[in-house]
Amino acid sequence: MTGEEKPSSSNVPIREQGNFPLQCPKLTETNYTAWALMMETILKAYGLRETIEVKEAVDDKKVHTTKAMIFQTLPQDVLMQVAQYSTAKEVWDSIKVKYLGADLVQEARLQTLRSELEAMKMKPNETASDFAGKLSSIKAKFKSLGGILKDKVLVRRLFNSVPKKFLPIVASIEQYQEIDKMSFEEAVGRITAFEERLKNQDEPKADHQSKLLMASSYHGW
């Protein structure tokens, strides 16, 4: 056999395996936790994780490589703030302090929204559409903070917040439907339709029995 034996692909460092480049995620105002998880995994794959974990001296080339990988993911203002640090660990810790604090503020805001949602009640003279709009507004605020408010939470909040006149339709829906699988839009539609039926009755006030009859007609939807 002549010449040097080529190493097997399994022994080639990951950064030299061009067929599967590892893309570093961009850091934003709302994705620090996911960013840190991805970056730690990528650095570990490249054999560089020690550069952000230990205080002891680490190979300079590894340090500069890690810093370069981190720097390319940062917004310009953050880059200017951390460029002063000489080690990758200092850079990493500085970003962590900045964004972990932001995460705590974000979580506090989300918790405030959860409390606000839990306290919401539909007023007797309020329309189902107007109240649904308030719930949708809470959902939009959750999204703007990077949170997710699932439909089943909104549906249950809607059903638990309506005045007594809606209880027959709520009871009917809960009896015949899987409300955890119901979309928020569908729930609002059913409550709104029942509300319209109440308005269109000949008598000014419907008795309880007539409400039950109307509600039972909806279970087949």
Averaging pLDDT over every residue, what do you get? 82
Oligomer class: single chain
Rounded radius of gyration (Å)? 28 Å
Largest sheet: none
Order of helices and strands: HHHHHHHHH
Helix amount, in percent? 55-70%
The general outline is: elongated
Write the topology of this structure.
Blueprint: H1 32-45, H2 60-71, H3 76-82, H4 88-119, H5 128-144, H6 151-161, H7 167-176, H8 184-199, H9 208-216
Helix pairs in contact: 4-5, 7-9
Key words describing this protein structure:
about 220 residues, mainly alpha, about 60% helix, about 0% strand, disordered N terminus, DUF4219 domain-containing protein
Protein described:
By secondary structure, the chain is mainly alpha-helical. Among the domains are: 31-103; 122-202. 58% of the residues lie in helices and 0% in strands. The protein has nine helices and no strands. The protein is elongated. Residues 1-19 have low confidence and may be disordered.
Quick overview:
This protein has nine helices and no strands. It is an all-alpha fold. It is elongated, with a radius of gyration of 28 Å.
